[in-house]
UniProtKB/TrEMBL annotation:
This is Penicillin-binding protein 1A. Residues 70-246 form the Glycosyl transferase family domain. Residues 636-671 have a biased composition (Basic and acidic residues). It catalyses: Preferential cleavage: (Ac)2-L-Lys-D-Ala-|-D-Ala. Also transpeptidation of peptidyl-alanyl moieties that are N-acyl substituents of D-alanine; [GlcNAc-(1->4)-Mur2Ac(oyl-L-Ala-gamma-D-Glu-L-Lys-D-Ala-D-Ala)](n)-di-trans,octa-cis-undecaprenyl diphosphate + beta-D-GlcNAc-(1->4)-Mur2Ac(oyl-L-Ala-gamma-D-Glu-L-Lys-D-Ala-D-Ala)-di-trans,octa-cis-undecaprenyl diphosphate = [GlcNAc-(1->4)-Mur2Ac(oyl-L-Ala-gamma-D-Glu-L-Lys-D-Ala-D-Ala)](n+1)-di-trans,octa-cis-undecaprenyl diphosphate + di-trans,octa-cis-undecaprenyl diphosphate + H(+). Residues 614-628 have a biased composition (Polar residues). The chain crosses the membrane at residues 21-45. InterPro entries: Beta-lactam/transpept-like, Glyco_trans_51, Glycosyltr_51/Transpeptidase, Lysozyme-like_dom_sf, PBP_transglycosylase, PCN-bd_Tpept.
Length: 697
């Protein structure tokens, strides 16, 4: 009886379980049908809803750029230079270059590439942002030729269906021909024929592989990768195109390597017709918008762009250019040395003023020039020390040191014995800075610099920045004025870094908001450490290497001069404004003895006096240095030990260092300099988790 009952229960259980499964399956099928129906309805509507036909007959409209007060400062439009050509006129190598770098499965897909979309989605998820687009050449053509640049799901669906429609109506060759005649190459050039004439002064059919690879790399960011604006970046992009061509079998490895080294003969760039106020800033804003929305949107769709620029500060910045001497005129007719100046509100990241050079070229040195920072890098070493129990009164022995044959020297050529961290900053002393970095590990200063927005470190390969020479600013590449100025803003903003912002909001011609930017900030160091560093850098201006930057109100800053006087810097700040000044020759040759504590400090002073004239002076907030609870003394490098002792500040310095400080000299000994026979310091060990490489750029 029990067996029978159990069997009955098992049958009923199995039956009820099967019924439940069928119910769930049925519900799932109904839901799938509903979702499919809704999706098909949406897709059909999108496919049949080409952008409002009225837009097709709207006349092109210039875009307006406004300053922070809503005053129009520029009217942006372009004279379109477009010369269509047949695909037969386009060299096979140019066709291959575009396919390799833009859409390597172009000849295999039917307009949309699921693999490319999946790869882009994976890349973007890993990068927590939009790093890769996944659009095919056909989709790019559909977007550029037929659609607006708004980033909405509806427009993306329209792009997909238009791409599929294009593939049904045209051959691959016809699509590629339309694409190559449509894309924007900067300098007002649309299409490969206009681009060939603009950059090389020849017809497209006469281009060689070197020129083809260069052209194929430009559309990714037409201003940044234009060889007339930024030849180094254009060459690096060309190398990427050649690597892609090699990867997909269009050229051999030897051909790729040979072409990477080939000389590029360019047309001499035409001078800008408009060199009015804020021209470099306007170009920078324009290019950021082109990168995001496309050239047609910027030049033809009547956008209204509201920026962070303060015109009073901008005019003050541009007036400082007159302080520059002219030592020579280069082959492009530009006076040398050149300069850059950037001013930022450290609390919201707003770029208030920007000078990218003197002259009317399109190379914006404030954002594009990657130059050696020299001693302007040292504050990142100091802040790392303060975050690791050092105080401004920690004592370091300024004595000779040998690091695998590298013997760093102070600019004075002398050693001062025991000095405080405050004195090291005040007089920009090299040897103690190296000893601090050696004790901490160079990864820590690099990490903090990365967290504050420096994105140009090289962390891998035989030549990289994970060596002690970096503590003196001897970087593999260098920094841009915009990024190092923004990084110093962290010190002014109590240890919180705010990413630089140039565009507040963008509206379309109908007043619809396309984007509105909010400050992106993160806490990097403690408020106490930032206050202690500021206190030390105030001394730099009061009685150190930066006395020429004194503006008669609380301010902090740091000088920077590289070996052979190739680069000279002054970067400094008040509680509410941070500004950076760079001076140097475009060809990276030595200036005539220009040091950071001299001309750059004077330019900074002249600008800051005018920029802050209408605001009351105020002190920096935050705690000040303490004599207790931190590292008392960093012993001689031979012992490599730390001991805690209470120390008092040392205000006496050797006569040689006083003389050095008076001159404003803080020129570092650069172990990477070819004229220095001492080898560079060796790379340091890999960082611990959370160290270098984990920083947000």
């Amino acid at each position: 009886m029990d067996k029978h009952s159990n069997a009955s229960r098992q049958k009923r259980s199995a039956k009820s379980g099967g019924t439940a499964k069928r119910v769930i399956l049925g519900f799932g099928l109904v839901l799938m049908v509903m979702i499919t129906g809704i999706g098909c309805g949406f897709l059909t509507a999108s496919m049949n809803t080409k952008p409002d036909l009225a837009n097709d007959i709207l006349p092109p409209a210039s875009s307006q750029i406004y300053d922070i007060n809503g005053n129009e400062i520029a009217n942006v439009h372009a004279a379109e230079n477009r010369r269509p050509v047949k695909i037969a006129q386009v060299p096979k190598q140019l066709q291959d270059a575009f396919v390799a770098v833009e859409d390597n499965r172009f000849y295999d897909h039917s307009g949309v590439d699921p693999r490319g979309i999946a790869r882009a989605l994976y890349t973007n998820i890993r990068g927590h942002g939009v790093a890769e687009g996944g659009s095919t050449i056909t989709q790019q053509l559909a977007k550029n030729a037929y659609l607006t640049q708004e980033r909405t799901l509806t427009r993306k669906v329209q792009e997909v269906f238009l791409a599929l429609q294009l593939e049904r109506q045209y051959t691959k060759k016809e699509i590629l021909e339309m694409y190559l005649n449509q894309i924007y190459f900067g300098q007002g050039a649309y299409g490969v024929q206009a681009a060939a004439q603009t950059y090389f002064g020849k017809n497209v059919e006469d281009l060689d592989l070197n020129e083809c690879a260069m052209l194929a790399g430009i559309p990714k960011s037409p201003n940044y990768y234009s060889p007339l604006n930024n030849l180094q970046a254009a060459q690096e992009r060309k190398a990427i195109v050649l690597d892609q061509m090699e990867k997909y079998g269009y050229i051999t490895h030897s051909t790729a390597e040979k072409t990477k080294k080939a000389e590029m003969k360019l047309v001499k760039p035409a001078k800008k017709s408009d060199s009015g106020v804020a021209s470099y800033f306007i170009d920078y804003v324009t290019q950021k918008l082109i990168d995001k929305y496309g050239a047609d949107a910027v030049y033809k769709e009547g956008l209204k762009i509201y920026t962070t620029l303060d015109m009073d500060m901008q005019k003050a910045a541009e007036e400082t250019v007159s302080k520059l001497p002219t030592y020579k005129t280069d082959g492009n007719g530009l006076a040398q040395p050149q300069m850059a100046l950037v001013a930022i509100d450290p609390h919201n990241g707003y770029v208030k003023a920007m000078v990218g050079g003197r002259g009317n070229d399109q190379f914006n040195r404030a954002t594009m020039a990657v130059r050696q920072p020299g001693s302007a890098f040292k504050p990142f070493v100091f802040i790392a020390a303060l975050e690791n129990k050092f105080t401004p009164n920690t004592v370091i022995n300024d004595s000779p040191i040998d690091i695998n044959g590298w013997r760093p020297q102070n600019s004075s050529g002398n050693f001062s014995g025991k000095v405080t961290l405050r004195e090291v900053a005040r007089h920009s002393m090299n040897v103690p800075t190296v000893k601090i970095a050696q004790k901490l590990g160079i990864d820590k200063p690099i990490y903090y610099a990365q967290e504050m927005g420096i994105s140009t470190f090289v962390l891998e390969g035989p030549a990289n920045d994970r060596q002690l020479a970096t503590s003196l600013g001897g970087m593999t590449k260098g920094v841009t004025p915009l990024e190092i100025t923004s990084a110093y803003g962290t010190f002014a903003n109590k240890g919180v870094h705010v990413d630089p912002v140039v565009i507040v909001k963008v509206l379309d011609r109908n007043g619809k908001v396309l984007e509105q930017n909010e400050p992106k900030q993160r806490s990097v160091v403690s408020e106490n450490s930032a206050a202690e560093l500021t206190d030390m850098l105030e001394d730099v201006i009061k009685k150190g290497t930066g006395t020429r930057a004194n503006i008669g109100r609380p301010a902090a800053g740091k000088t920077g001069t590289t070996s052979n006087y190739n680069d000279a810097w002054f970067v400094g700040y008040t509680p509410d404004l941070v500004a950076g000044v760079w001076v140097g020759n475009d060809d990276n040759t030595p200036t005539r003895g220009i040091m950071g504590g001299m001309l750059p400090a004077e330019i900074w002073q002249a600008f800051m006096k005018k920029a802050t004239a209408q605001t009351p002076a105020k002190n920096f907030d935050g705690s000040r240095s303490s004599n207790y609870g931190g590292v008392g003394e960093l012993e001689d490098d031979k012992k490599q030990e730390l001991k805690k002792t209470d120390t008092k500040k040392k205000d006496d310095k050797k006569d040689a260092d006083k003389k050095d400080a008076k001159k404003g000299a803080d020129k570092k000994s650069d172990p990477n300099n070819k004229q220095n026979n001492n080898p560079a310091a060796p790379p340091v060990a890999a960082p611990e988790p959370g160290g270098v490489g984990k920083g947000r750029n």
